[in-house]
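Input:
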Amino acid sequence: MTHFAPFTMQDRGLAYGDGLFETMRLSRGQLSWWPEHFARMSYTCCVLGLPIPDEIDVRVAIDSAVAQSGKSEAVVKLMYTAGSGQRGYLRAEPVEPTLAVLIGDVPAADSQWSVQGLSVGLLKQSGGIPIPALSGLKHLNRLPQVLARMAWTKGVDECLIQDENGLILGGTQSNFYWLENGRWFTPPIQGSAIAGIVRALLCRYLGVTIAPVSIGRLALAQAAALSNAVRGVLPIGCLAGRVLSVDQSMELVARWQRLCDLQANVSAKPLDSAWFALQRQVAVLDSGSQVRCHKMFGEKG
Amino acid sequence: MTHFAPFTMQDRGLAYGDGLFETMRLSRGQLSWWPEHFARMSYTCCVLGLPIPDEIDVRVAIDSAVAQSGKSEAVVKLMYTAGSGQRGYLRAEPVEPTLAVLIGDVPAADSQWSVQGLSVGLLKQSGGIPIPALSGLKHLNRLPQVLARMAWTKGVDECLIQDENGLILGGTQSNFYWLENGRWFTPPIQGSAIAGIVRALLCRYLGVTIAPVSIGRLALAQAAALSNAVRGVLPIGCLAGRVLSVDQSMELVARWQRLCDLQANVSAKPLDSAWFALQRQVAVLDSGSQVRCHKMFGEKG
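Output:
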């Protein structure tokens, strides 16, 4: 049984961003891709040095919040922090984590997106190298995204972030894909980019390949798309001023939808277990080098 | 009149670390160096795009919390966030900031510190928060410090952080000073280092000079010290295994104490106005390049 402390003003999530979040889609009353979300959450706990909660306890908390909301279509946001603590960067021992579940409405989709696609701008965000071990994780230190979101140009639906080396990191709140010579690609996870669950699934099941992309290479893109856990896969119709046909990206959208339907039909038994999901997640985090979870792997591997 | 929204679970400080904090020392019932803290807070608001609160309103909130606590010696921690918001990186308009004031005990000092000095270790931490404009600011994205604090070797009182270029950034929770050829130096603010108020005062009033320092240059140090707003200036007696005499660093401690006494005696009229403090703060932030507060400077300059 995982003990979750109540949320207080002294919570380290507020004080330092010392924790993580997961944003999930509730669709037809089902939580989509829960094993994958829990696997990422577990991995993030591992890197941050937080206790991995009992999966059942977390699900009970989520299901209870969903039931109270009465919704069958929703965005489920889970926050898990290092709990309340005295002032100072050092955590109390033992850590008594805080778990919070927020149920929100699904944002309205623009009906034109499947016809014309999204309009996507481009932002430069120079920076030093962030702590590589934290790259890809959905931790609570999100000022780079907040600043990027404030810098969007008017009239766009999302912006891609380009780092100081000219490489595309992804969208401010989505992962990015482009079609080149008939193959779909996505950039590696670097800097402030998040290793999305939808991205992991596209790479594993729908043949998307990881490759770096500079603004120059984008000129070769025959089509492009974005993804996140709330909206799934969406076609891009205008990329940094260049108009793209959405026909080919809508094929990727359709394949994603078939994968979701398949998953929904075997919801009692996901495509594979959370453990395989975790291995995949780690592989797809692909920031390389910094796997600090040997103990966890050792126990389960 | 600044409107402060109540704190909720949807607070963007919790969700994204979208806000700032200040840690201040209450000494003999007086809040030390308030104009300097408010100046840094204002500058941080400016970089983060948060409304600068009315100084009087913030002081009323602090003084009320101090009075309720009944303490005359305390650590006063102020958190100021972008307030409650819908899910998503974009802030609601207009932002209704949250202000929280926490009053804590002054941590016990080790009586041996003035005799033997602190024992200080060395940590390597590649990277930091990836946005240069955020360097030095006391924003709520503090996972680099949390991870560094967890990595302290046993038996030390603080650790210096060395970045991937071999440069010392400062302590995990303090600024760093070293004496070389009879002059005191402190490293420039880079990466995850915070531009401390005590550091700013030492540079302005006590002749401390900003210079980069690698581990090699540290071998030239005749003495060394640390500072933060809670403890002031403390001597280092052991630096990465090398024993240092604390006599010369205790001279810096004594000079700091005289400066504090002078400030306390003219508490109704600080050494100079908050506006000069702000100019100084910006100069001492010295991360260069990214001053985004032209409007604010223009209005007051």
